[in-house]
Amino acid sequence: MNSKFLPCMLALLVLSACGGGSDPEPGTPTTPTTPTTPTTPTTPGTPGTPVASGSPSSPKSLSFESSNTIGADPFFNNFTYVASADERLVVRVNLAAPLSDTESARCASNPGTGSTPSSYSSQIHIYDSRGVRVGGICGEDLTFNFPAPGTYMLNFEFPSNGGGTINAASLVGVSPVQFSDSGDGTPTRPKKLSTLTGNAIGSNPFNGYYWVQAAQGESFVLGVQLHRPLTQTQKTRCASGAESTNNAQLRVFNASLSQQVAVACGEGLRFVAPAAGTYIIQTDYGVNGGTLNASRL
Fold first, then answer.
1. Residue 201 — φ and ψ, nearest 5°?
2. 61 close to 81: Cβ distance less than 8 angstroms
3. CB 49 within 8 A of CB 113
4. Is 269 helix (H, G, I), strand (E, B) or coil?
5. Taking the CB of the first residue and of the last residue of the chain, which one, N or C, has fewer CB atoms within 10 A?
6. 219, 95, 243: which is closest to 156 by C-alpha?
7. Model pTM greater than 0.70?
8. Are the C-beta atoms of 91 and 145 separated by less than 8 Å?
9. Which residues of 87-108 are buried (b: 16+ CB within 10 A; e: fewer)?
10. Residues 227 and 288: beta-carbon distance below 8 Å
């Protein structure tokens, strides 16, 4: 290559590397660079109440419309509820691992009602707004009469049962129960009992309530066919007392669920209506479903 062109070529290479080049001709408008559209800042959310964790300082609100979830750690199993005067609360705990016969027997021996809790960790606690224990029970079922209107805290202590769910219902006033042909079996909306065909019993005793009209002196015979018959241990415990905590009961209440008329631990019950009116029958067999049969005499 002719050496006289070498300086020119080197100069061109230097200009190219440095971004040099010819300027636009005079009078030629430069196309402006389109400015980057600024990102719209995210609108900060409106400050609100933090999601309740279930801890003592951040309890969840107790729901009557759907099940309430609990875990194995009782520290996060706190629920708050504002009660009115003369209100009763019905609570059912449905555990992933239901209480064993041994656990139920321990609860029966040390129920932990009132201000003093049970010594066994299978219980429900109720505290008033001052943090004072005013009620509770060792076991999976609780009916509690609030001593005064106000805010209460419910704590569920079942550390060895894998968590589960809670169902609750409120009974307020003289006639807190709705009687219809389309009830869902809950304490406030019991199903209508049939004496002509079998009545299905599900695996959640909270939905095991039935209503029936009776004349004064009328007799009823109730019999339960369970998917899994009662064990010999359950039968032995039933023989020692009609009211038990081992999920093997038939109960009969008046129309407001305020008075128990009859109870039997086992798979059968006979009762005579003391007065004309409506009666509520509860089947309590834990997760053991089946069929409830009924006859009038």
1. -110, 125
2. yes
3. no
4. strand
5. N
6. 95
7. yes
8. no
9. bbbbbbbbbeebbeeebbbbbb
10. yes
